[in-house]
């Protein structure tokens, strides 16, 4: 297993090198020159250098004055050292801005992920146990709604009901107007209240696919010969479901859950933007629309790392949940 993990890590590094080169090439091929816009804006500040001087400096800093391969190697050498440059939008180092916003996304993603597992897997198993019943049809409708509804539409409906009509929850933002005047306990409560609608949005949108996947795999397991044998031996239905069937249902679920773990740090760009949660997703959106090349490059490479890491985690977890899987 150790040799397999090291081999996969080596492949992951090679893939990351190729993916980052593709991302850099795309950024260099954008028709509109954001570097020129940035140089023009900086040159208009009081006492600033001229436009041509700023343009030459920015091109040199980010390797824009060289070819794509040479420019990429310059960027890659700096990236290995943890230097992704300064964010043009936020005027601080990219890594510093990342460390300020990542934990907002992690809290949002972690709570939603836990709720997704708690809700989707038991309901998927229940639907499989009561196939073609009213319970099964009801759960299927909920799952299909979660799969079909766009995030921006569902979030808008929640905001309309709970914020505009009922006035129970805040419309957007992380804290309320009088946050600074509250006690420490009430400040945490204020943040928690602002998190309710974003978490509801992410959870309900996410449970549909996991619920249907769990139901499908559970039905396949329940129709297996060894399940019929276990029932013929007189085992209780609870033990047949929870011990024999559910354990084997976990094997295909690992693919989804393992790939979802890195997503806890990826941020929910649409949800964070709609609710103005200052996480990594909303910050990346602001960077993209403003032409912040350094932060956009970092975010896209960061997403590539999470995707590759999720695939590796899923492969390793296969061997953990299924003793038949061994690496030779």
Summarize the structure.
The chain is mostly helical and about 325 residues long.
CATH architecture of the domain at 98-219 and 248-290: Orthogonal Bundle
Helix tally equals 13
Average predicted local confidence, pLDDT? 84
| CATH class call of the domain at 98-219 and 248-290 | Mainly Alpha
CATH topology of the domain at 98-219 and 248-290: MetI-like fold
Going by CATH, the homologous superfamily of the domain at 98-219 and 248-290 would be MetI-like
Along the chain, the helix and strand elements come as HHHHHHHHHHHHH
Counting DSSP E segments of at least 2 residues, the number of strands comes to 0
Looking at the structure, what is the overall shape?
globular
Radius of gyration: 25 Å
**Termini Cα gap:** 8 Å
Approximately how much beta-strand content do the residues carry? Answer: under 5%
Secondary-structure-derived class: mainly alpha
Q: Segments where pLDDT lies below 50 for 5+ residues?
A: none
Sheet with the most strands, sense and barrel status: none
Describe the structure.
This protein is mainly α. Among the domains are: 36-83, no CATH class; 98-219 and 248-290, Orthogonal Bundle (MetI-like fold). Helices cover 74% and strands 0% of the residues. It is built from 13 helices and no strands. The chain has helices at residues 2-28, 34-43, 51-61, 68-80, 94-129, 134-148, 151-165, 184-222, 225-232, 237-260, 269-275, 280-289, 293-321. Helix 6 (134-148) packs across helix 8 (184-222), helix 10 (237-260) runs antiparallel to helix 13 and helix 12 (280-289) packs antiparallel against helix 13 (293-321). The longest helix is centred in the middle third of the chain and has 39 residues, at 184-222. It is globular. The termini are close together.
